[in-house]
Amino acid sequence: MTLATSAAPRTPTLTLFCGLPGAGKTTLARRLEAAGVGVRIATDEWQAAIGIPHADADFHEALQVVLYRHALTLLRAGVDVVLEDGLWTAAERQQKFADARACGARIRFHVFDVDHDTLWERLRHRNADAAPGSAPLTEDDLRWAEGVFEPLTATELALVDEYVRHTGGTGPADGAPRSPR
What we know:
By secondary structure, the protein is of the alpha/beta class. It is 43% helix and 13% strand. Strands 2-3-1-4-5 form a five-stranded parallel beta sheet, with helices on both faces. α2 packs across α3. The chain is globular. The mean pLDDT is 88.
């Protein structure tokens, strides 16, 4: 039996996010998924769907590794992926960029620069709504995350194919896509 070959393989795109809790990552990722931009992978939602409390950090990290491996498998198969992680550290970002390139993927990067007061206001509303898949966060949790977060550098932006900077607007992107190349 001979399998028919299709046209030349297409270059998949890995859409990534860099931002703190409440910045708008999930809102944008859902919009992108609905628009057909790629398969969205969101560890928080998977964890909630299988009934494991968000506070179980060990499970969260283990699940995140498994889902990330799946994302890379999808990319190698030519499928676009929207990976909904915050990528708070330079090391995380570097690894994601390197893995995407190893899979032959383009990188579209959404960077969220949102001030503390706006983040906290959004988190307060999210906590009150108690939407499935969202974990309640305190202002101390937000301050902790801000302390862990490593600001993005121009060198990092030069490693991606396209990026959009979001500054807290309510639209799907309050900045125009830019190519650092």
